[in-house]
Specification:
By secondary structure, this protein is mainly alpha-helical. 82% of the residues lie in helices and 0% in strands. The longest helix has 24 residues. This is DMT family transporter. It comes from Nonomuraea typhae.
């Protein structure tokens, strides 16, 4: 169940990051409400995952995969550019997440 909560927390993290851009500095009501709900949902579901997972594994996967999802969806939704240095960084993050998962024995 911890991995399910972590996956949900990652979805919330991506929604939070993308929503923050849509708030235009928290000047737009509904994107701001969405962003705050996503932030709270992400923290809550991460806390549920960390009941079982090591904080180093859970938090790193949350931020790492959340970052990758945010960059990919940011490119699709906001037309942000994905460059070669970004791709190399993604590969490093993915390798790190895989290594953490293997090292945690889960």
């Amino acid at each position: 169940m911890a991995w399910f909560y972590l996956a949900l927390a990652i979805v919330f993290e991506i929604a939070f990051a993308l929503g923050t851009n849509a708030t235009k500095g928290f000047t737009r009501l509904w994107p701001s409400v969405f962003t705050l709900v996503a932030a709270a949902g992400g923290i809550y579901t991460l806390s549920l995952a960390l009941r079982t997972l090591d904080v180093g594994v859970g938090y790193t996967m949350w931020t790492g995969l959340g970052s990758i999802g945010t960059v990919i969806l940011g490119a699709l939704i906001y037309k942000e550019k994905i460059t070669v240095p970004k791709l190399v960084s993604f590969a490093a993050i993915i390798l790190g997440v895989i290594t953490l998962k293997v090292a945690s024995g889960l």
